[in-house]
Amino acid sequence: MLLGVIADDFTGASDVANTLARGGLATMLHLGLPRRDADAATEAGVVALKSRSIPADEAVALSLQALDWLKAQGCRQIVFKICSTFDSTPEGNVGPVSEALAGALGAAGVPVCPAFPATGRTVYQGHLFVGDRLLSESGMERHPLNPMTDPDLRRWLARQSREPVGLVPWRVVRSGAAAIRDALQAAAAAGERQAIVDAIVDEDLIALGAACADAPLLTGGSGIAQGLPANFIRSGLASGSASAFRGVAGPEAILAGSCSKATLEQILVHVREHPSLAVDVEAVLEERLAPADLAAFVREHEGQAPLVFSSAPPGQVAALQERHGREAVAHRLDALFADTARLLVEGGVTRLVVAGGETSGAVVSALGLDAVAVGPEIDPGVPALASPDRPLALALKSGNFGAPDFFAKALAVMARDA
Ligand SMILES: Nc1ncnc2c1ncn2[C@@H]1O[C@H](COP(=O)(O)OP(=O)(O)OP(=O)(O)O)[C@@H](O)[C@H]1O
Ligand SMILES: O=C(O)[C@@H](O)C(=O)CO
């Protein structure tokens, strides 16, 4: 294994795995801390953790365990994958984990950049934009777990970090790889353990990747990995051939627990032409609706791309949370989807689309999968995934990713060349 990634959530892990596979590395996505060595053919390994919104010391401990495993697999370079909207609180976890990894690897002047231009996330003068809005006016300032109230990433990261944080401005980035490398070295010499790097377009990220061919650590969104595969292919270390993904045909299901804007629109589009079940959340909480009911609905509509969703608009979600408690509702719904997915796969479903990071984490953990191979991209940031051991394909969609027709498209891409 050449390149190792530690990702702070499951859909984010799938996002960066997509970037590396598209770049030509044979990529495996490890779902949780791996229990055994990677396959010898793997060139890039992504370890998916659920460390974004847990206490910082726990996130550090988990990430250092993932680092040990990746180093034992022979990785020469590590990426710490965070969210493209920099989801974190003043306590962390981006700064604490990034600094701990840098300490363990002896890295300084570590580039930190969440930019992902294909999904509208850009960084200029150290400030993060989502489309044409500053992060703090994008809706992220109301995020339930990680409200992003400050778009100045240098300031936000410095609050979470022990050591000074620098900035490599776009003026330098647009001058190319050599200028970026010099700026990161200067940051390291000035005692800056981490430096925010501006990036507005893909070319900026590719130049950053070229500048970081020998860097032990990079921290960022999936965009930061865009230029890295080429370094390994150019030097002859990686073959540039694709991963072991094989498409899968067969019974299918779509499970959506994400209440994000993009998911709500995808549901609206899908329900027009496909059988769909809107989960009555009150009925779930009162145990009048169970996983077996959801699985039965899917079975009745096999072959017609059935969708089961709990997703609801913000007002409805807030009312439910007020009545029953945020944690209680989320916990019950995550468990509902996890148990439903297990029943579906036991009952023969071989293509499963899941919308939402928490929901995906719950589903994948319930399925007991160790690792999946990364296949073709469905939409920016979301690849088709397939188990190497059994006929099972997955798509794990981050809440805000994907075009309006994502669900039907995902099922088609998963079956490609099956
Ligand atoms: N109708 C609902 N009311 C309240 N909570 C809900 C409802 N439907 C789903 N949830 C919960 O909301 C959470 C949605 O989080 P999830 O991470 O799955 O989606 P997301 O936030 O859109 O995605 P991402 O984290 O990838 O951006 C889950 O824990 C889910 O159980
Ligand atoms: O970077 C992103 O926005 C996603 O990969 C993600 O992390 C979603 O949780």
From TrEMBL:
EC number assigned by the record: 2.7.1.217
Signal peptide (UniProt feature, chain positions): none
One Gene Ontology molecular-function label: ATP binding
Four-carbon acid sugar kinase nucleotide binding domain: residues covered: 253-407
UniProt cross-references to Gene3D superfamilies, sorted A to Z: Four-carbon acid sugar kinase, nucleotide binding domain (3.40.980.20), Putative sugar-binding, N-terminal domain (3.40.50.10840)
Keywords of this entry: ATP-binding, Carbohydrate metabolism, Kinase, Nucleotide-binding, Transferase
Catalysed reaction, written as an equation: 3-dehydro-D-erythronate + ATP = 3-dehydro-4-O-phospho-D-erythronate + ADP + H(+); 3-dehydro-L-erythronate + ATP = 3-dehydro-4-O-phospho-L-erythronate + ADP + H(+)
One Pfam family per UniProt: NBD_C
Family assignment from sequence similarity: Belongs to the four-carbon acid sugar kinase family.
Task of the protein: Catalyzes the ATP-dependent phosphorylation of 3-oxo-tetronate to 3-oxo-tetronate 4-phosphate.
Protein name from the UniProt record: 3-oxo-tetronate kinase
